[in-house]
Amino acid sequence: MPMTVAGRFRCAGSLSASSVGQDTDKMTMTHKQQILAAARGGKLDKLPFGARIDVWYNYHSAHGTLPDKYQGWSQTDILRDQGAGAQARFFAVTREEYRDMEVVETNDPPYITTEYHTPFGNVAKKELFDSSEGPWIRYEMEKLFKSEKDYPVLKYVMEHTEPADNFEAFNKLREEVGEDGMVMTAAGGLWSPVQRVMREIIGYEQFFYELADRPARVEELIEAVKDLERRKLQVGIECDLEIFNICANWSDDIQTPVFRRYFVPWFQEVSEFLHSYGRLVMAHTDGEMRRLNPLFRETGIDIAEAITPAPQTLVSMREFREQLGDEVTIWGGIPSILFEPMYNDDDFDNYIKNMFREMAPGYRFIVGMGDNLPFDGDINRVGRVVELIDKYGRLPIEV
Amino acid sequence: MADFSLIAQALDQGDRDKTVALTEAALGSGANPQEIIAQGLQAGMAAVGEKFSSGEYFLPDMLMAARAMKAALEVLAPALEQTGIPTIGKVVIGTVEGDMHDIGKNVVATFLSGNGFEVFDLGLNVPAQKFIDEVKEKKADILGMSALLTTTMPVMGRVIKGLEEAGLRSSVKVVVGGAPVTQDYANYIGADGYAHDGGRAVPVCRELIGK
Q1: Contacts of B156 in chain A (CB under 8 A)
Q2: Chain A environment of B196 (Cβ under 8 Å)
Q3: CB contact at 8 A, A50 and A31
Q4: Residue A95 and residue A189 in contact, taking contact as beta carbons nearer than 8 Å
Q5: Sequence-distant (≥ 6) Cβ neighbours of residue B171 within 8 angstroms
Q6: What does the pLDDT profile of chain A (399 residues) look like in tens digits?
Q7: Nearest to residue B49, comparing CAs of B113, B130, B137?
Q8: What single DSSP character describes residue A343?
Q9: CATH of A17-95+163-392 among 3.20.20.210, 3.30.930.10, 3.30.450.40, 3.30.420.40
Q10: From residue A237, how far is each of A167, A273, A355 by CA, in Å?
């Protein structure tokens, strides 16, 4: 069932404080205000910067190898010290609860096995979850879907999963970050419905085999996941977050015809719903985007986040700007690999300066990582980006 | 006489049933199974790889073609029992330790296999020593390593150093790939080749071993 959009523009309490645009005194704007203003098309006087360092931070925290100066510091405090805005990450403002089925979770580190016992039969998945090596690894070693007989069970699981609010945990992190950046999160999970079926429930390769062999069954499952996501959005909209991430990890491996048929209509529906509440819509687009960029403009999504250009992908920042158009805010631009020791300081500076030129005049652009500071990256290059913005990132950038 | 181009065409379209039916028909008409592979299946896979690299095809197109090829090879297997499937080189391949991503690696393995390489797929999360041991044991011509994370990317460099220490470096060509990996990075760690995608992996590997 389609979602009902808000009858009138509605903006929750704390949204107004940071949802400033052209009228704000630019000199006093916080990092959060700058990011939101850029995302809403406001004319800032210099480029905003939201940096993501959790891969680097998790790795060095786990190994006790944070630089001496930063021992015991939080990610946000380190970014404050570097002068950058924070881009913290929180999975979702809803969590899943189950009814009329038994869900048994067995924790055997680093694996978590979850079994769903339903009247139609049972399904199980085995996941690996770990962040000690840097990235948030959550990999389904064993997918829920095993064979055709699992479709009715999976449909039942989706239909009997109910979202509950997870606002308290989100608000705690948001308070920690405060006005020094944004906490990126979603109403539901990491994925949009089709992405969830493709990556998490069936698995990438099997998904395409199933779509070729049993399209009606796959589409029925996708619809069940969509209905669950709609319920999550109805809960999530009560949280006053400004930006909703509605899908992660876009890349060329999402076949363009599949994207056009199954992803675009969903994004249009969700964007319309969120826009009717005055919220911004974002996608984590950190992969090879060369063939998805033209379709991005049809989705209604406001922010393409974690944009990762050449040399890590085949698309330059100039091409991203041209292909995504002037209405989409680009957040990203510095490929992770640039922070690696193989690139010296001059290489790094030259890349950043060239990126600014390619993005001229620089509006609707938030400097950021594609998508993280690598574990062996130099944290002080985050501060170097701040210096380069002060020197070369004044808006409008003139070439 | 069997028209091998029809097999190549069916495979190019990812049509498993048609590829199998045409392969069965060709075999039934007395065609040489090695010719069916070379002029039908491998020709079809080469076309798919080129179309993928040029941007015409997508990863799922490669997967469907690979599935069709696998099914056709099963049809040919009894006829190839004596001679085996002809190979042009041995490849040990895997995703490095700490990395659980294998879609790209699987596609590369499938394409190499479909283009005449004998592939030993070690899977994902492969320890450095395992790569070295397998290169030695299989007498591999090529070692292919994949990493999707900047965190795991340096492991590829450690494996190359391990090959040097084991005295194996000169006997094997190392090809690397994966989302964060670039040609610059491949040069930096001392790899011999870099493939941006599955379609390019085949010509890169062929060139490295002069086939």
Answers
A1: none
A2: 314
A3: yes
A4: no
A5: B139
A6: 556 665 433 333 345 444 444 444 455 899 999 999 999 999 999 999 999 999 899 989 989 999 999 999 999 999 999 999 999 999 899 999 999 999 999 999 888 999 999 999 999 999 987 766 666 567 778 999 999 999 999 999 999 999 999 999 999 999 999 999 999 999 998 899 999 999 999 999 999 999 999 999 999 999 999 999 999 999 999 999 999 999 998 988 888 899 999 999 999 999 999 999 999 999 999 999 999 999 999 999 999 999 999 999 989 999 999 999 999 999 999 999 999 888 999 999 999 999 999 999 999 999 999 989 988 899 999 999 999 999 999 999 998
A7: B113
A8: S
A9: 3.20.20.210
A10: 11, 9, 35
Do residues A36 and A357 lie in contact, with contact meaning Cβ atoms separated by under 8 Å? no
Residue ranges covered by each domain of chain A: 17-95+163-392
Q: What is the largest CA-CA distance in chain A?
A: 65
DSSP state of B180: T
Two tokens, residue A344: 């010296």
Q: How far apart are the first and last CA of chain A?
A: 50
Question: What is the spatial distance between Cα A60 and Cα A66, in angstroms, rounded to a whole number?
Answer: 5
A337/B182 touch (CB, cutoff 8 Å), yes or no: yes
Enumerate domains of chain B plus CATH numbers.
4-80 (1.10.1240.10), 89-208 (3.40.50.280)
> How many CB pairs below 8 A link A and B?
74
DSSP codes, A271-332:
HHHHHHTT-EEEEE--S--TTTHHHHHHHT--EEEEE--TTTSS--HHHHHHHH-TTSEEEE
Q: What is the pTM of this model?
A: 0.91
To probe the interface with B, which of A143, A205, A259, A313 has the most B CB atoms within 10 Å?
Answer: A205
Provide the 3-class DSSP secondary structure of residue A359.
coil
What single-letter amino acid sits at A31?
H
* Probe site for chain A from B150, B181, B187 (most A CB atoms < 10 A): B150
DSSP 3-state of B60:
helix
By Cβ distance, the residue of B60, B154, B182 closest to A311 is B182
